[in-house]
Amino acid sequence: MSGAAHEENVYDALTEADDPRWAFGSGFSDAETDIVAPVPDGADPADLAEYCLMLGDDALVLSHRLTEWVSNAPELEEEVALANTALDLLGQARVLLSRAGHVEGLVEGRTSRSEDDLAHWRDVAEFRCVGLTEPSDDLDYARAVARLLVFSAWRLALLHRLQGSADPVLAAVAAKGVKEVTYHRDHAARWVLRLGDGTPESHRRMQDALVWVWPHVEELFRTSDVERRLVAAGVAVDPAQTRDEVEAVLDQVLTRATLTRPDVPPTGTIAGRGGRQGVHTEKLEHALVVLQSLARRHPGATW
């Protein structure tokens, strides 16, 4: 292939695109416009910013954990699948963090922050992700698919309902995310079935993985004060309302996979506070050390 015949190659196209980061982006062509849309009537900007951080941080942190499988997955096809899942979640996180940063600037005494500021320059206590996203799965593939099944079943139930949100960004993320997360859930479910109803060894490891994941399930259905206020404003979804749907999906998959629901206590709270209020384990700190290292080593750099 001669250089003269192909002066314009795929790498040139990347650098000449309107947004050269499109390959890692959200897929929202009008995201810039939506992000600065007015805050819906009846919603407190501080609450909306906090809620966007909750959903954005969930996606960001789990996306990071999934990228740990790149070059480590059991087969090439699965490595691509996990990487694509991570990119889907990263795209959702970018839009949600951008919206959070903009709306935050509408709160008296605060200034707007970019998606990169929020991803790379917040400390652990400023993150609002659920505990399910935090720990490393230690490259145990059964743990990876068990967590992805629980997370995606729950997030899909949220996104279905958020398509009717009064906030245009949340509604847009939900409309696109439903298609993405449906694939994530079904992909994880197929692997849980394959391992659970496979050999005695794969069954044992899949059951052990569920025991690892299950303490974090209860937190998914706890409703914060911020969420309650935004539900009343027609902006947010009460996670407690997703419980029946999520548990029905999980029960169906576990039954077909010949697995049992673990009987383990849920993770506790500190004075009633958990991940949504910035109370995290050291596992999140370890993840952020890696996630934020490049930006903090080279502040202000662009690429």
From TrEMBL:
Pfam families according to UniProt: PaaA_PaaC
SUPFAM superfamilies: Ferritin-like
InterPro entries: Aromatic_CoA_ox/epox (IPR052703), Ferritin-like (IPR012347), Ferritin-like_SF (IPR009078), PaaA_PaaC (IPR007814), PaaC (IPR011882)
Top-rank taxon: Bacteria
GO BP field: phenylacetate catabolic process
GO cellular component: cytosol
PANTHER family, per the entry: 1,2-PHENYLACETYL-COA EPOXIDASE, SUBUNIT C (PTHR30458:SF0), PHENYLACETIC ACID DEGRADATION PROTEIN PAA (PTHR30458)
NCBIfam families membership: PA_CoA_Oxy3
Protein name from the UniProt record: 1,2-phenylacetyl-CoA epoxidase, subunit C
Species this chain originates from: Pseudonocardia autotrophica (Amycolata autotrophica)
